[in-house]
Amino acid sequence: MKNFIFLVFLFSAYANAQTFDVASVRINKAGSAGGEGQIAESITSTPGSLIMRNVTLRSCVKWAYGVRDFQLSGGPDWIASERYDISAKAADKADDAELRKMLRALLVDRFQLVVREERKQLPVYALIVSKARAGLKPSSDSGPASMRPGDGALEFRNTSMAELAERLASRPLSVDRPVVDKTGLSGGFDFSLKFADSAEHLKGALEDVDRGAGPSIFSVIQEQLGLKLDAQKAELPVVVVERAVENPGEN
Asked: Is 183:126 a contact under the CB 8 Å cutoff?
């Protein structure tokens, strides 16, 4: 009886949710085949529209719920391998928060997705300030955050501390725990992280960092940016995939 009540509640919640006016979900057969030359995933949102190319259902769920990889678990293996193209448009302008809710409803409709949301204590690194903004310059750039290779360094432009925290937990920096921003610093910053003496040596230096053989990223950000990675535990939202169907049907 409890399960029946839960399913009725779930159906009612999504039946009343704001939905896309038009949406197409197609299997990306080339992407699902994998192999050399496979194009990267891309997710592009504008007010009222969402375009997702060569994405896995796992990536769709992460975007829909605003969580990172370590905050998502469960589901069959194919949710991380099968690829899809999704194109969706709302009847009116909608910001990303509204588009995420619409995507959740779309995933329920097309993939019969069932998830469970929880909060868990997880081991993390807290990104904190160890000394006053050394190496951090408030950005005057109005463009999107970016990271690109420079003269022996990774050059960051208009990057928030939350965006840096996410970068630190991804390749090539790849610290061994999720990173959460606890700096209290708002806005975007311009800064660089230097790993080598020249551009031609940067790739090798970053490969050393990635496998733990190069300079410690802990020391680099503390010495160059005045920031510190502090081992802590934090209660974070997590999403557990309980059910999904693989073939949404061509439409």
From this structure: no
Kindly state whether residue 158 falls inside one of the protein's structural domains: yes
CA dist 215 and 208 (Å) reads 8
Say if residue 148 is in the same domain as residue 93. no
CA–CA distance, 44 with 46 (Å, rounded to integer): 7
In whole numbers, what is the pLDDT of the chain averaged over residues?
86
Instruction: Kindly report the backbone phi and psi dihedral angles of residue 127, in degrees, each rounded to the nearest multiple of 5, phi listed first.
Output: -85, 115
Same-domain check for residues 46 and 155? no
Same domain, residue pair 137 and 116: no
Phi, psi (deg, nearest 5) at residue 145:
-60, 145
Beta bridge partners of 118: 238
pLDDT in tens, 208-249: 877 777 778 899 999 999 999 999 998 989 999 999 998 876
Shared-domain flag, residues 14 and 108: yes
Residue ranges in the chain whose pLDDT is less than 50: 1-16, 37
| The pLDDT value given to residue 171 | 75
Give a yes or no: residue 114 inside a domain: yes
> Containing domain of residue 176, as a range?
131-225
- pTM, two decimal places: 0.68
How many domains, in total, are found in the chain? 2
Task: Name the H helices within the chain.
Answer: 2-15, 29-33, 57-65, 96-111, 161-168, 199-210, 217-225
Please check whether residue 32 lies inside any domain of the structure. yes
pLDDT digits (tens, 9 = 90+) for 184-219: 999 999 999 999 998 888 988 888 877 777 778 899
In a domain, 96, yes or no: yes
Residue type, 121: Q
Contact between 131 and 183 (Cβ < 8 Å):
no
